[in-house]
Amino acid sequence: MESASNDVIVGGRWLVLSKIGEGSFGEVFKAKDIAQNGFYAIKRESLELEFPQLHHESIVYDALAGGPCIPKCHWYGQHDGFDCIVIDLLGSSLKDLQSAVTDIPIDIVVDLGCQLISCLEHMHNKGLVYRDIKPENFLFSASCVLGNDIEMNWPPYARYDKENSPPPSPPSCRTVFSNWGKQTALYAVDFGLATWWRNPKTKKPYPECKKPIKFKTGTARYASLNVHRGRTHSRRDDMESLGYLLLDLLLAGELPWSGVTARTSKAGWDRLKAIKEEILLEDLCLGLPHGIMDFIDYTRRLRFNDRPDYDHLRRLLRGCNEIGPFSRLVTPHPYTRMMPSPPKYQQPQPQQQQQQQQQQHYNQPKKYHVRDNSHEINRRRSRSVSSRSRPFANNLGDQQDDVFVMDDLLKELPPISTAPSPPLQNHPNYQKRRFDKSNANQSRNNYRYHSSSSQHQYHYKHGQQGGHPKRYSNRYNVGWNSPQQQQQQQQRLWEGHHQQQMRDCSLHTP
């Protein structure tokens, strides 16, 4: 085949056709094999980079060759001041699918998740950890392409008039997969961040780093909690990141930590770490099958050198589509931090407004009133709102000067309560302080005695009364007896006094 003078031929075999992608580490081009007329992808990066990755990536491709979800690497070398690698040409990514369709059904997510588990299992068995799990790095085969092809293959796009009618709604995921056919296999690409978790020669695992790692590796959106805490990346972290990826597909990209912005990388990683540590798994997976929540919970419980049970993880995902414990929907936790949304467009009636005004009048805090915080015992303070600078910032307007705008998280956190608490003596959790024998002032302030009758009676500081047959009996119970016990003591005192009067009357009777 003859080529023009301005054509770029890499390695004397692959003719560069067009640019199809670009990332932070290089560019991707579509190329054609001159000898066999096949299409391939060429990835290149400059030789002047401080930290080149393509050479390491070619080694990883050779180590993983022949495994599931692994494309084939055909050539690696240098051309015109660039490091180049030639791999199989692939189609659209999971990110493209997520952006093109309305939602992804649970059965499709389960099928894709089982494929990715087999892919990560193959990597781990070869002694590698991926460390960069995200939808952009998982691609379908070359025949599965979104964009202009979906408009030509989907009937509503072919029927509508572009000049006189609006375009139809986006297609469903099942429509896209029916157009693709059964060729929906996933492939993993971009192994520049992959590393060895064990020595490739001795097969002995590397020890965990004792000091926290300052600079994190991977994508913060799908990073595991241990990676956020600065620990060495291991097999458990790949599986936990996969759980967040599947959860992101089911939630249509609306993870609770979506929308976080930061001025520095460290601040963004710290904020996402705080959100992931604070949210409960029941709130994170609310309304989804239990298999998804158990998947994430299992990966979080693994230790550094533990080998994940890949068969168990596949059973958890497949159980979401079958009748059983894994298909039950997750319900809210008793101590959930999710706040129900208020009813929209509901105006209070005039009578309700008057009742609300009266209730606010009666709930006015009194002088020397002590606020009760017992209702906040079971709820930890949220780290998403800065307590030092803005302790009462409950809306986005109050956070204009802050670094972060927690647009998705503030909707789910309960606002700080400013309503007055009930009086201290009437609160159900209030308990009177136990009498201290060594404190004489407390003894004088809490009760006093008088001799208005033959029996000595004591009075509490707040007006409560009671009596005892003897002056010093049960002194340690002063201020501690419950109202029922005080009533029983008064009843016994009255009965004893009545019996004494009856005996006195019988003695004076002739």
How is the topology of this model organized?
Elements: E1 9-10, E2 14-22, E3 27-33, E4 39-46, H1 54-64, E5 73-79, E6 82-88, H2 94-100, H3 106-125, E7 128-129, E8 138-140, H4 148-153, H5 155-159, H6 173-180, E9 186-188, E10 195-196, H7 225-228, H8 235-250, H9 265-278, H10 281-284, H11 290-300, H12 310-318, H13 350-362, H14 440-446, E11 447-450, E12 457-460, E13 465-467, H15 483-508
Antiparallel strand pairs: 1-2, 2-3, 3-4, 4-6, 5-6, 7-10, 8-9, 11-12, 12-13
Helix pairs in contact: 3-8, 3-12, 8-11, 11-12
Protein name: non-specific serine/threonine protein kinase
Binding site for ATP: 43
Biased composition (Basic residues): 458-473
Write a structural description.
Among the domains are: 80 residues, Phosphorylase Kinase, domain 1, CATH 3.30.200.20; 204 residues, Transferase(Phosphotransferase) domain 1 (Transferase(Phosphotransferase), domain 1, Orthogonal Bundle); 69 residues, no CATH class. It is an alpha+beta fold and 510 residues long. It contains 15 helices and 13 strands. Strands 1-2-3-4-6-5 form a 6-stranded antiparallel beta sheet, covered by helices on one side. A 3-stranded antiparallel beta sheet has the order 11-12-13. The protein has a two-stranded antiparallel ribbon with strand order 7-10. A hairpin with a 2-residue loop joins strand 5 and strand 6.
